[in-house]
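Could you help me review a protein record that somebody else here produced? What it holds is a sequence and that sequence's fold in token form. I have pasted the whole thing underneath without changing anything:
=====
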Amino acid sequence: MKKEDYRKLAIERRNRLTPEERENRSSKIAISLMASENWKQAERLLIYCSYLSEVSTRGLISQAIRAHKKVYCPRITDAGQKQMEFYRIHDISDLRAGFKEIPEPVTQEVYMTQDYSDSEKGTTLVVLPGVAFDKECNRIGYNGGYYDRYLVRIPYAAKVAICFSCQLFAETLPTDPHDVRAEMIVTEDHVYRNL
């Protein structure tokens, strides 16, 4: 199968989950992620705000803010060039419907990628969205390449993807040279690591 085939199948599977199933599974994923060393060590959290049938991140965002982590969410800054930046939020209310109605921050404090280096590896955690995943921590996104472009700017950041187990495939997904793998994938019933 091609990337688009996996993308379509994974979205179909995810959409079949009831709102209650998504909420329950999202809660399990959040508990597992927050128990990880990646989460505990992180001083800064770069995290997407969930949309439609994605794993809910609102609880994670609220918990991180309460834990005094600096929380940043993505905003599309140039759709034509497929560019995004992360902006600090202090509350869920700092998010509004933006590009394609996806919640985006209305704040102005941008995450400065050049302010950190490899010496601070682990203090910045990126929680990656995606559509399809495999057990080797490959991910297929929504076909925009926004995260792949952004992640090369922050090689020091820990990269963790979250997804429902129905989005995970047993076979290795097709990848391109520019695709950035996660270091860890957290589902509601298992944690996979890219060793």
About this structure: The chain is about 25% helix and 25% strand.
